[in-house]
Structure formats: C-alpha cells, structure tokens
Amino acid sequence: MDSNNDSFVVDGKLALPYQYFAGRTGSRFIIAIRDEKKIKGLECKKCNKVYVPPRATCEHCFCDIKDNWVDLDSTGTVTGFTVVRYEEPHHPVKAPFIQALVKLEGADTPFVHIVQGVPVDEMKTGLKVKAVFAEETTTTIMDISHFEPA
Amino acid sequence: MKKNRNVGIVGVGQSAFSSHREDVNQPELINEAVNEALEHAGITLNDVDCVVHGNMELFEMVHQPDMWHTLGTGAYGKETIRVTTGGTTGATLVCVADNLVASGMHDVVMAIGFEKLQEGNTTAGITNMSDPLWGRRLQTGALTGVFAQKAIDKYGEEKAKKAAMKYRIIMDKHAMKNPKAHRRLGLEFDEMDTLAENSPTLVGDLKMIHMCSQSDGACVVIFASEEKAKEICKQPAWIKDHITVHREEAYCAFGDAPHTTTHEYAAQKLFKRNGITSPVDELDVFEMYDPSCWWGIDWISEFMMISSDEAMKLIEDDEIMIGGKIPFNPSGGVIASNPIGATAMVRVAEAALQIMGDAGEHQVPGEVNQALASGFGGVMWTVLLLLTKEAPVWNE
Amino acid sequence: MSSGTDQKVTIADIFGSMESRVNPDGVKGVTCNCGYKITGEGGGEYTVTVKDGDVKVLEGIHSPDVTTTASAENWINITLGKLDATTAFTSGMIKIDGDMGVMGKAAMFFQKYRPPAPEVTIQDIFGSMESRVNPEGVKGVTCKCGYDITGDGGGQYTVSVDDGNVKVLEGIHEPDVTTTSNAQNWIDITLGKLDATTAFTSGMIKIEGDMGVLGKAAMFFKKYIPPGGEIEEQEELLMLPKVISVPQKFNTGPKMGKFLKGLIDKKLYANKCPECKRLQIPPREVCAECIVRADEFVEVGPDGIIQVLDITFFASPDPLTGESRETPYVSAHILLDGCKGHETLWHELNPANIKTAKKGDRVRPVWNENRTGSVSDILYYELIE
C-alpha cells in the first residue's frame, strides 16, 4: 500500500432521534408491571404455551392470541446466565452484574433480566428467583428492579 | 431476456396506512398485511417456502428487524432474506422474490416491505445516509425544490404550478377511492389556487401539499411458480420483466447539461426488449413512485417516452385519471401513502390487483393486460417492472 | 365511572338520532317492524319501521315483528357499548318477543350512537392549559407560541414557556411561532377529530415562524377533556423516545484526502477524467461513467456562480446532534470558476442572502478561521456584491 498518499482519518458522528412504539400488547405488559406489580403473559391455547414477554401472535401456530392474558407468579427459575464484567453507559447497573434468563412459574419462555443478591462466582443455572419491583417507576422493563433468590 | 420459469403474483396484503399506529409494534403491523395476503391467496403459512423482508435502514433505528419481526412475519424456521435498497426497497424485494421463484429455488415466496415512519425521523434518516465526509451536513432529507424549479423553468411559472396541483388533486381523487390510503383529503379542482397558497413551504417552491405523506404501513406480496400459481389462483398477475438502473451519487448532478435519467434509461430498455413502442397506448395502468407532484409531472414524459408537452396534455385532458387513456396511480400513489420500505412494493401490489381485477373501487375500467410499476430511491435510481395478464411465453 | 355524558344521553336522543344514523348496507332489501318498550325513568315506546331499505322511527308500538323490552338504564348502556347485548339477553336484563331472526338484522341497521358533544369553547381550551401542563414536555424549554384563533368564538393567546414555567396570556406577545386557525378547526384538532398534520398540509391552519418550536409544543400539555365530559377512555400506549448518537471514524481515501487537505490552505481541487475530461468535485477515485482512474488534480474556484438554491424551511434534525436545525437554511450547488455543466460543488449559502440570491449570481466562500480538512472549513458561500 502507498503510505505516501493523502488519506487520513476524520471523526464523524451520527445522531438520530426516534421513538419506539410498544403497541397495545407491549404496553399492557409494562403497565401491569408498573401499576399492579404483576407480570402478565399471553397464552396460546392451541399449542398450550404461555409467552413472557407477551406476543400477539403465537410463533408456532401463527394464530392470534392477543386477548388470552394470564397472570403469572413473580417467582421463577434461572435457565441460563452470564456475568457482565465491563462498563458501558447504557448498562442499567454497575459491572460486574449477572444477566440471566428467568423462566417464571407457569411460563414457557424465559426472558432476560438482572439477578442480584448472589455473589457472581456462586451463580448457578436452576436457581429459584423472585422479582423485586422498582420503587421509582420509569415505565420500562426496569420497573422490575431485578430478581433475587427466592 | 428469458426466464427459467414463469412467476405469478397470487396474493396481496396491505395494512391500513396511517400516521397513528401507536397500537401496534413493528411485527404486529406486519402481521396485519401477512394475514391479508395469505387470505387473498387462499393459502396458509405452511405453503410458503421462503420469506424476503425489507425496509429502509436508519428509519426505526432497530437492527436485524428480520429476526425479531419473525413473530409477525411467520418466518419461524423458514429461509429468510433481508433486502434494503433505500426507496426502491419494496421493488427490489419483488425482484428478489421473482428471481428466487424463477430460478427454481423456491415455489412460493412471500415478500414483506414495511415502515413505521412515526417511530423515527425520516428526514434525519435520509440525511444520515448521505456521504459522511461532505453530504451529511448539506443534505435536506428527501426534500428539494430542484424539480419544482426545473418544471417552472420549462413551462413557465403559472402553467407548471397549475399542472402540479392538478396532478396532486387527481391523486387525491384516486386516494378517496382507496380505503387503505393514508391521506384522503377530499380536494376539489376549484380549490387549486387557495390550497397552494395556504400550504406551508418546505423547500423553494415545494410546499407541504405537494409532498408525500409519512406513513406507517406494511405490504405483503406472495409469488408462486407457474404450476403453483395456476393451482392457487384463477388470475395471477405475471411478472414479465423487470429492470434496475443505478447511477453515481448526487455530486456534480445539478448543473446545466443534458443527461439521460435512470427513469428514461430503464423505460427505453425495458420497453424495447418487450416490444412496446407506444407505452401510453399499449399499457393499461401505471403505478408510479411519485414522492411529490413536482416529480410526478416531471416523470410522466420520462417513463412514457413522450415529449414534455405531450405529458402536460395527458394531465390537462384527465388522461392519467381512472377512466383515462393511461391511469396513473389509481391507488392514490405515494403522495397519498408512503410507508417507505413498503412503498415501491405497494406499486407492484396495486398493479397486480388491477390485473387480477381485485382493486375494488379504484379498479380501472376495461381489461388490464399490461401494467407498469416503478420504484425510485436514493440519488435517482430506478426499478421498473412489467406485469401481464397472460402468462409470458419464452421463445428460444 | 359516573360522568357528565351519562346525564346527557337520553332514550329520546338515541331513538331520535336513529334516522340520521342509518347504515345503508345494513337495511338494504330489508322490510320489518321492530318495537322497543323502554321502561323506567326516561323510558318510552318506539317502533323502527324498515321498508325495503327505507327507515322511519315512530313513537308507540305499531304491529311489530319483534318487540324488545329493557329498562332505560340498560338500554343506554347497551347503546354506549358498556353492556354487552348478548350478556344482557342471556341474563334476562332485556326481553325479546317475536321473530329473533329480524333482531339479528336489526343490529346492522344503524351506525354507532355518539352522545351529544359537550360544549367546547376556545376559551376553555386555552383557559385550562395551565392546569394541563406536562412537566416532561416543557422541561428546559423556553419559547413563546402565539395562537390567532379566528371566527366565531375565537381569540388571541400566547403560550409562554420560560425554562419549564408555563403561562397562557391573552393576546399575541412576541411569539417565536404563530398558529392561525378558525375556531371550529382548532376545537376539532384539540378533540382529536381533525388530524393536525392534515389540517396543516391542506392549509386549514397556518403556521408562521419557527416550526421547530411547534414540534416541541405538541408535548407541552396533557390531553384536553371537555367540561363535565368524559372522553372515551383511551388506553395508555407506550412510546420510548431516544436519540441514538454514535461516534464514527472515516478514512478519507487518497482522493478525498487530497481535496479535504486542500481546504486547510483555502484551495479547492477537482480531479479530471483522463478520457471524458470531466471534473469531479469533491473528487472520486474513478470516473464512474468512463470506468477509469482519475488521478489528475486541477485547482478550481474558489469563487463561482449559483446553479441551484434549495431554501429549506423544514426544520429537520441536525445529523450531528439530533437537535432541530435553524431555518431557513440554503443548500446550494455552485459552479466554480474553471468548471462547466454538471461540475458543481455542493455547499450552503449565507442565510442572510436568502432574500436576494438567485441562480447565476456570483458567490465566494467564507472560510472558517479554524480549518481541519472538513466540509465545515467553508462556513458557507456568500454573494459578491
């Protein structure tokens, strides 16, 4: 490569405002957590599956399930986890922290959240956990503050 | 130009186009169009072999949408291809689906174009697509007064402005017949002057009334091999041919020198290889990607291979209206509804509905044997597609 | 929930408005008489007669094919959709005597009943604003929005926001942006019956001044609720607003690098195609038309003439910050001295020149004091007087 050419590196930036719509199904899920401290799922009666977070369409049989709301326990089981050990401005808490897949009692799908109250090197798959709801709400999934050992 | 085997459009679905779809997220919006298309084709998701998915980059600021849209697209466990080519995305999706079926790779392919423009900022998105070293600071989104100026220079101010508003109102009259259309304003020809006067200026002589909407919406088209298409559907709309023409980007493009536009180039080539010598007489309907009425009036002559004066006369004599010699955008066009990643596909979908006789209140009178659809995007590039009622016959 | 609308909805109004609510598709080809005995306070007896699509509503019961009996309260609730008709029938809250088949058709005879609208005035809309402030929407905002509401019941108001503090004043006071609308349209927009963008696009409302401010103004207030009225309960639908801001690095490549470095020395370089001889500015590696490398550089400009002016009034976000741009600004294509045809340079024109600048005018670059080899090394072009 010609090292004597005029190429150089310039700093750039890209800024874009946007707003993500949760839709009716997503809104009901978050608002129930915020206002009722309750985690809700949607059930496909045909496939006998309960989805958390809820989705309007069953991804297996593709039928409309958006009205089949079920209330779930706020306790569940960790089906997988990872320990985040680096800092990023968008992280909800300071590293190191445990990011885990939690399958609630009565649900067929796990969802991602944070587990606290366990030393990171003692964390295990299969741990029973329960949701701790946030005192100050933000109308996001962080209205569940975290999960802790049940 | 020869195809391995024929490809027919057998189902079309469109969500309602609107700027108020806070009630659905992206996969839920798409799902509306998917279900309508499956129902129109009379098949189920199990019959679909492959899903082609596309929208604009940078518009909703979510990544790998083809993955998390699976809930709405039904692509779970199916082969899925994502395509994004700017404003032409919807038309390119059609080209890809057509190629996948024509090649023999798949028998039934579902193509999905969507956009939720209310979730992002269209002008910011387009501006950020410009060359970061020079154009990004200067780009004004997709808004430009250049084409208004070009028409004014060519025809004189009064004639040009009158033609633009006439075209605008024709599109609204068409949109009023299309329940899916986003902006249905109920405009009348005698309001022309007051409308133009009262409408806010965007850039130069481009006013808000001239410009397309910013819509949320999804469009789905289902393609099948000739054998399958004839099983599924009484009257498929056959994809006879398509052409994609690109050019270099926008620097050094705005001076006083003659040049052939991508629209002209695409039209000349496509018509020549399909034996079409007089498009106005031989085509039955044209769904044109017209982001503003200034572009609309400029492009009639380019696509129809006629002089500017002849194009003006088509507008003046109502020949581009439903019932005219060559109806343009019976659906109301892009000015009425513009969910960008779906927009160019809506052109093809609407052309197909005209051939199938399923366009409802905006069905053009008489037989539709040949329909044209165009996509437009980026810095002036073109996709042009020719659809027919008769299955094409390929001679060696 | 008890509300003002309940008091306003009467059995007389429900039946009285029926002829104006006929659904032509629902009555097409139908002939029948449906009797209604509405009991209790505010009740009455009515017959809906349909004769081959022609609908009349009569007082009293006149040879009905089917008769429905219900209390006034239950019938009002069914009409408003608060009580499910099938549930009411199953549980005996309404009684149906006669031809049930006719009843099935009757459900399609009329369009939805809308309770009489509460009195909404411009004065009440603006008068209630201070109590409807949305703290999130006004946080850190300072601006003045004028409203000139014309016609019967109109008035002039200024919404003044000073770092989140909101005052609504009568009259127009030094506004950054002024919205002009007639009273009826403004009421319809406020109630959500008329889409603001549609009204704006078609010129039903006019806006003068800083459009960017108006974009923010949409977030200043919570929804207006008519006096004593209950709006149809709207479900809360979530939106998550974000600004993505990504730092990037770009390699210029040798051709663009040479061009950008030239700007530091106030020099403008184009490169020349060895075959077609056209110039490209900014330069590119190849001539895409001839498909050959274009290695020869030519100094052009820096002055030139205006070829295209795009005077932009639409306040889009600045791609570098996400904040609204100042408007109007001018995107311009300039034919530099030494260039011809399409060989124009894309930059901006001094906004101070907007009123007088036109195609063909001579312009010169205004250089940035601090030049780094970027598009901003030229602040803008300006007219040479």
Task: Please provide a written account of the structure.
The complex is a heterotrimer of chains A (150), B (396) and C (385). Chain A has 150 residues and is mainly β. In chain A, 9% of the residues lie in helices and 41% in strands. In chain A, a hairpin with a 4-residue loop joins strand 2 (39-44) and strand 3 (49-51). Chain A is globular. The mean pLDDT of chain A is 92. By secondary structure, chain B is an alpha/beta fold. Chain B has a domain at 7-122 and 214-224: Thiolase/Chalcone synthase (Peroxisomal Thiolase, Chain A, domain 1), CATH 3.40.47.10. A nine-stranded mixed β-sheet of chain B has the order 3-2-4-7-1-8-11-10-9. Chain B has a two-stranded antiparallel sheet with strand order 5-6. In chain B, a hairpin with a 3-residue loop joins strand 10 (370-377) and strand 11 (381-388). The model of chain B has no long low-confidence stretch (mean pLDDT 91). By secondary structure, chain C is of the alpha+beta class. Chain C has three domains: 4-106, Nonspecific Lipid-transfer Protein, Chain A (2-Layer Sandwich), CATH 3.30.1050; 122-217, Nonspecific Lipid-transfer Protein, Chain A (2-Layer Sandwich), CATH 3.30.1050.10; 253-383, no CATH class. Chain C has twelve helices and 21 strands. In chain C, the strands form five sheets. Chain C has a five-stranded mixed β-sheet with strand order 3-2-1-4-5. Chain C has a five-stranded mixed β-sheet with strand order 8-7-6-9-10. In chain C, strands 19-18-17-20-21 form a five-stranded antiparallel β-sheet, with no helix packed on it. At the A-C interface, strand 1 and helix 1 of A face strand 11 and helix 12 of C.
Feature tags:
heterotrimer; B: 396 residues; alpha/beta; Peroxisomal Thiolase, Chain A, domain 1; 9-stranded mixed sheet; two-stranded antiparallel sheet; C: 385 residues; alpha+beta; Nonspecific Lipid-transfer Protein, Chain A; 5-stranded mixed sheet; 12 helices; 21 strands; disordered N terminus
